[in-house]
Each structure stands twice: as C-alpha cells, then as structure tokens.
Automatic annotation (TrEMBL):
One of the record's GO cellular component terms: cytoplasm
Originating organism: Coraliomargarita sinensis
GO molecular function: translation elongation factor activity
Gene designation: tsf
Main location per the UniProt record: cytoplasm
Domain Translation elongation factor EFTs/EF1B dimerisation: 56-196
Domain of life: Bacteria
Official protein name in the record: Elongation factor Ts
Top-level taxonomy: Bacteria, Pseudomonadati, Verrucomicrobiota, Opitutia, Puniceicoccales
Length: 197
C-alpha cells in the first residue's frame, strides 16, 4: 500500500528544508511519506549537489557589515557566489548577514584550518604538551592531537558550531545554502573589530 503524497506534505517539507518542490515530492515518494527520512534524503542530496558545485568559480557575491553590542563589535565579511543574480537575492543577503553575525558572536581567527597561523598551532601544541606532562608517552600524543583538534574546531569559522543552530557547523550551513541556491559559494574572508581589543 503506497502513501498518498499531498501538496500540504510537500509544502511542509519545503518549508522545513528550503529544497525545491519537485525535490521534496521525490523525497517523500521515496521515503513513503516518512517526513524525517525525506529530510535525511534531501540533506544527503544537498551535500552531493554542493560537492559537485565546489569546483565552479565563485567570483561574484557581497561584502557586508554587521555591528553588534551598541557599536562595540563590528564585522566586515566577503562571501562569493557564481552569479550577480544570486548575489542580489534576499536569501543570499540573509546568509551573508547571518555569517557576519556569527563571526561577531563566535570570534573565529580564520575561515579554515589551512589559513591558521602555524605559530598559533605550535603555541597551542606546547600548551597541550605541558598539560599532558606526566602521562604515559602513548597517551600524550593522543591528548595533544585531541586538544589541537578542539582548538581548531573552536577557532576556524567553518568548523565552529553555528550560533543560530548549534547542532550544525558553519560548513554544514554553507553546504545547505549551496544546495538551496544552486550555486557554489565561498566564505572568502572577514575582519572582526572589537573596541579595546
């Protein structure tokens, strides 16, 4: 017995995920009307679609500002996409603003691990080694690597828990937006300013 997929179900799934109507209907049909399973299917497809788009050049986009805490914290952020058309959409503008707000709140030091200053990593390594002193030799390496990974995930923008939805990383939010808007996007750079810092 097959489940009847109606417009209300498709609309609710679209509202929840931001995916296209046909994608939502297809996911509901494949999951036999199971909403949670349909969401999971759409997430997997979104990641796959985003991965296909990753090689495409993103040379358009926006530079946006966000000022927080009565002018005590400010962010200047550049996010690129493939076309001027997408850059002008409300969805893209909202995404850029949300990322700038996240940067103001979470204070990352770089966009990704590849950009972090090696001197910072070395300093963190020395701190971790000092904290692991006196432990068995085989445990020290695991402790140091664990602490370094924790430091990087807390300080690299793409790995941080997204302030508006801590169950997702900024990378997962970026990937979802790439799938939703149908273009490759890159968080290119940012600058965070804080009074007195």
């Amino acid at each position: 017995m097959s489940v009847q997929i109606n417009a209300k179900m498709v609309g609710e799934l679209r509202e929840s995920t931001g995916a296209g109507l046909m994608d939502c209907k297809k996911a509901l049909v494949e999951s036999e009307g199971d909403f949670d399973q349909a969401v999971e299917l759409l997430r997997k497809r979104g990641v796959a679609k985003a991965a296909k788009k990753a090689s495409r050049e993103a040379a358009e986009g926006l530079v946006d500002t966000y000022i927080h805490l009565g002018g005590k914290v400010g962010v200047l952020c550049e996010i690129n996409c493939e076309s001027d058309f997408v850059a002008k959409t409300d969805d893209f503008k909202k995404f850029v603003r949300d990322i700038a707000m996240h940067i103001a709140a979470a204070s990352p030091v770089c966009v990704s691990r590849e950009e972090i200053d090696p001197a910072l990593i070395e300093a963190e390594r020395k701190v971790a080694e000092g904290q692991a002193e006196g432990k068995p030799a085989q445990a020290v390496e695991k402790i140091v690597e664990g602490k370094l990974n924790k430091y990087l995930s807390e300080n690299c923008l793409l790995e941080q828990a997204y302030v508006k939805d801590p169950d997702k990383t900024v990378q997962e939010v970026l990937t979802a937006n790439i799938a939703k808007m149908g273009e490759n996007m890159v968080i290119r750079r940012f600058a965070r300013f804080q009074v007195g810092a």
